[in-house]
Amino acid sequence: MMSHYQHHVFFCLNQREPGERQSCASCDAVEMWEHAKSRIKKLGLNQPGKVRINKAGCLERCEEGPVLVVYPEAIWYTYIDKSDIDEIIDEHIVNGRIVERLKI
Hints:
It comes from Iodobacter ciconiae. This protein is of the alpha+beta class.
């Protein structure tokens, strides 16, 4: 079956109550999601059939977070900052190379 997008990226943006398990939203996930959307748009990859950047609720990998997953390959990544997001976009999305150092 053919995927609707070349790459579909889901960012966990789940926010837990204080005192509960770590949550991705507490690790700047919303800012990183916004950055990824902006970067994909600047690269002209936000066209039909190309790349879609989406919000997701809890992806249940909280202790490894913040997390995102890239489909159709189903590659899971963690990240710290915008440079990590840029590396995932440049290497995985644009060049088709998995970023091993960020893979979980």
